[in-house]
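Comment on this:
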Amino acid sequence: MAAVDLGASSGRVMAGTVGPATLSVEEVRRFPNGGVRAGPSLYWDVLGLYRETLAGIGEAGPLDGVGIDSWAVDYGLLDERGALLGNPVHYRDSRTDGVPAKVAATVSARELYDVTGLQQLPFNTLYQLVSEGDRLDAAATMLLIPDLLNYWLTGSIGAERTNASTTQLYDVREQTWATSLASRVGIPPRLLPPLRDPGTVLGQARELSGLPVVAVGSHDTASAVVAVPASPGTNFAYISSGTWSLAGLELPAPELGDAALAANFTNEGGVDGTIRFLRNVMGLWVLSETLRAWSCPEDLPALLAAAASSPALAAVVDIDAPEFLPPGDMPARIAGACRATGQRPPSGRAAVVRCVVDSLALAHRRTIREAAAVTGRRVDVVHIVGGGARNELLCQSTADACGVPVLAGPVEAAALGNVLIQARALGEDLPDLAAMRALVRETQEVRHYEPSGTTGWDAAESRLTS
């Protein structure tokens, strides 16, 4: 199968094989992704993504199926003929500035949360659609990015549930679109396409010799969580670590109480009816933007090695602060945040990298502890999957910060979860998440990090709140 895995900074097509005691993925094509500034707006090059997707699938060789996952919240608008009305706008664009407050005047945060269970983020799909204003008059349908690409492949219009649940327009209890809520904030319910479950065979790819196309867990985190190699009965938390860190717990039902709302946790749909109870942490975006500011992305391994020798917790920042969301000069922002909290800014590149990694580990600690407290659950182990599982300093720092073992890997969790869902849809004997995770444990490398006993995490946290 081909797993098309589209991230906020790059995309790739992976060729995957699934069978009894067999699970593997191999990258066949990688391509850059990111925002394109045109005039005052920041867009996605969705046509370029589709071109690269077709090319990568073609390079993957003989296939039995294809599935697409991507980041959440962003979308394309189609007119009544099915034509794209314009390039999708990037979630880091400023067009939603002030929109959450406007919506709050109509629908309270408590009511929004009671229906959707979503973390309040300024770029949620609801806020983006409200910012469109009269431009919605020309639109007949909204399709999230994976659904848009699937539509171009097959002609099938719909919304896969795990990604639909990230829009703040999905009723997390009823598992339907929240059409009444949409109407109240000025979003026409006609824009919300039919919902479908992960594992649905959507049809045949017309440009690819009739290749079956499967709706996988199309939010990349949903696919990644499928491939968390947790053992049955384990009290585990997970961190899907990439541009964002999606950190939290897997629950059987949404947690919508006042404590969850106050702590700003999200309840997103997972595969097989699970709930991804998590919070978005700013993630490795801050590190990648720091390297971009220095024009030295190829030096990351050397910088991480130097950072590991720098003093731990010399300076920390609130990595989730709004100033770290847009692109820009992260080293200057880090220095400013340190001064604002009475700390000496890190001096030298290794110290800046150490500050970023320690701050991210501190945010992981904060998020996982709050998730456990809100739900009344114990966490005995943290699984880190995705690209951050390669970052030894981050994995060790997270183990130290959380005070529990970290199991790191698989790196390609999203692609593995993608092909596992495809395989089940196409007839492989993988009846449930336990069976899928057992196959991941049997076939994928996982590294073990024990807490080293480093102290000072409570004091570091207090610097950010004093």
